Amino acid sequence: MRDLTPGDKTKAMFAGWTADGQAFFVLTNERDPKKFDLYRYSARDYERSLVFRNDDALQVEAVSPDGRYVAMVKPRTSADSDLYLLDLQAADAKPRLITPHTGNVNHGTFNFTRDSRQLVYATDEHGEFTQAWTYEIADGRKAPLIAAPWTCRSSPSPRPAATASRARTTTRARSCGSSTVTPARKSPWPACRLATCRR
């Protein structure tokens, strides 16, 4: 067994695999106890490279299957947060705000789609309850994925980026107790557990 993140006080979290299985991502605070940087590891020899130096202490939530994009959240208050997207292939490679808003609006992430073209995210911007929306990376278009009169949220986990079983989207209605979650539009992605729903 090999320790990939040595250090008595180092904290590390698994952040997912690339779709081809050739690499995986790890978050570690070895550089700064208050900030988690993102590293890419080769699955063949475990050689690693720093892909994002997290100087602003953003919460890294998801890495796209092609390894190109990283979704991050910046909490402002308990009722307000911003969602950022980082393109690791961009020349400047800096997180870009994709949820400009006024007032208190909370944002979170579910995951990227399998083709890495869209980010599925959570927001309460459009009503009382949290909804699942999609963000089209190519042109910035946003559209509702699940609209329902109750909150949709990802299943509880210690940290979204630390679980290998991420929420994806569903093409069929889901049952939550006596209620049903119906997609706002037909989804091209395979079914899986998107949300835990509550009235």
Q: Roughly what fraction of the amino acids lie in strands?
A: 35-45%
Tally of DSSP helical segments: 0
Question: How many E strands?
Answer: 16
Q: What is the alpha-carbon Rg in Å?
A: 17 Å
Proportion of helical residues: under 10%
| Basic shape | globular
Widest beta sheet: strand line-up = 1-2-3-4
Compute the average pLDDT.
Answer: 81
Characterize the quaternary organization of these chains: single chain
Taking pLDDT < 50 over at least 5 consecutive residues as the criterion, the unreliable ranges are: 155-199
Structural class by secondary-structure content: mainly beta
Largest β sheet strand count, sense and barrel closure: 4 strands, antiparallel
Order of helices and strands: EEEEEEEEEEEEEEEE
Q: Distance between termini?
A: 46 Å
Explain this structure.
The protein has 199 residues and is mostly beta strands. The protein has a domain at 66-198. The protein has strands at 12-17, 23-32, 35-42, 48-52, 59-63, 69-77, 80-87, 96-97, 107-112, 118-123, 131-136, 142-146, 151-153, 174-176, 179-181, 196-198. The strands form 5 sheets. It has a 4-stranded antiparallel sheet with strand order 1-2-3-4, with no helix packed on it. Strands 5-6-7-8 form a 4-stranded antiparallel sheet, with no helix packed on it. The radius of gyration is 17 Å and the shape is globular.
